[in-house]
Amino acid sequence: MPTSASAHGATMLPGSRTYMCYVDGIAGTGGMNPSNPACADAVAQSGTTALYNWFAVLDSNGGGKTEGYIPDGELCTGGNNAPFDFTGYDAARPDWPTTHLTAGETVKVKYSNWAAHPGDFDVYITKDGWTPDTPLAWGDLERIQTVTNPPQQGGVGTEEGHYYWDLQLPAGKTGKHMIYIHWIRSDSPENFYSCSDVEFDGGNGEVTGLGEDEMSAQEIAEVAENFENTQAKPVHTGHDGDHVTHGKAVETEAVAATEDPAASSTALPTAAAVGGAGLVVFVAGAAVYNRRRQAGQQD
């Protein structure tokens, strides 16, 4: 299992750029050698240390500030005010690892409470007409949800502990988009940021652009949780000395809209989540595999 690291603010709804590139980087040799061209270029620009600390895209003095504070074109790095250089992950290009979704579906977000903090999770999505080769700007985004102090399940600081909430994806979305999440702590000026590249094409959480494009969601989770990340650094700040070396990879589950309507709106899926640095997508309790592998099995 990965060792406890320094920060806990990267979200995966779906997989953020830094998380997906981290998985891609360690999937082959166990080193940090991503095969995805966008990830490889980001590592060439920003180095490997940032990627080992993929969860630390933060600003200790963010204070909820957005437009006018974080420059256009630097949203994915939160203005690059983190303790590591994440500048390579702001690159505007269409070949980042991508999660495939269906417009109008409901996804259930799980966000680690390894170190629980009160605050708001602002969820944005790009407006129609945006293209991934355009640097992301505040004017490209529309906020679709704000969740304040979402409920938690499991103990704080445990593998199963997490925040959770439902997010309905906008109807009518097609093609490639960006989901942007800004976590604004209410007990500290520290904020966290993430960009997730998605494509609305009728998908149910399949991920393309990782390795040889043959990894399932389950395999993605296993790669991350089985890798011992000894290079993550205890640099997390903004806690007034309370817990400076905590950390855990964030987990999400996308749940099909066909989930049992009799279940509570906050009920968790019946399939168990994979612990550690995992992104697991379930449809009717079954792991969803990469769309290319599905097609191959049908041939």
Question: If you had to describe this structure to a student in words, what would you say it looks like?
Answer:
The protein is an alpha+beta fold and 299 residues long. The chain has one domain: Distorted Sandwich (Coagulation Factor XIII, Chain A, domain 1). Helices cover 14% and strands 22% of the residues. Helix 1 (17-27) packs across helix 4.
Helix content: 10-25%
* Beta strand count: 12
Supply the helix-strand structural class.
Answer: alpha+beta
CATH superfamily: chitin-binding protein cbp21
Q: How many helical elements?
A: 5
Distance between the termini: 37 Å
CATH architecture type: Distorted Sandwich
What portion of the residues fall into strands of 2 or more residues?
Answer: 15-25%
CATH topology, by name, is Coagulation Factor XIII, Chain A, domain 1
- Measured on Cα atoms, how large is the radius of gyration? 17 Å
Mean pLDDT: 73
CATH class call: Mainly Beta
The largest sheet is:
7 strands, mixed
Low-confidence parts, pLDDT < 50 over ≥5 residues? 1-7, 235-299
How many domain modules? 1
Apparent shape: globular
H/E order of the elements?
Answer: HHHEEEEEEEEEEHEEH
Provide key terms for this protein.
alpha+beta, Coagulation Factor XIII, Chain A, domain 1, three-stranded antiparallel β-sheet, disordered C terminus, 12 strands, disordered N terminus, 299 residues, seven-stranded mixed β-sheet
Brief description of this entry?
With 299 residues, this protein is of the alpha+beta class.
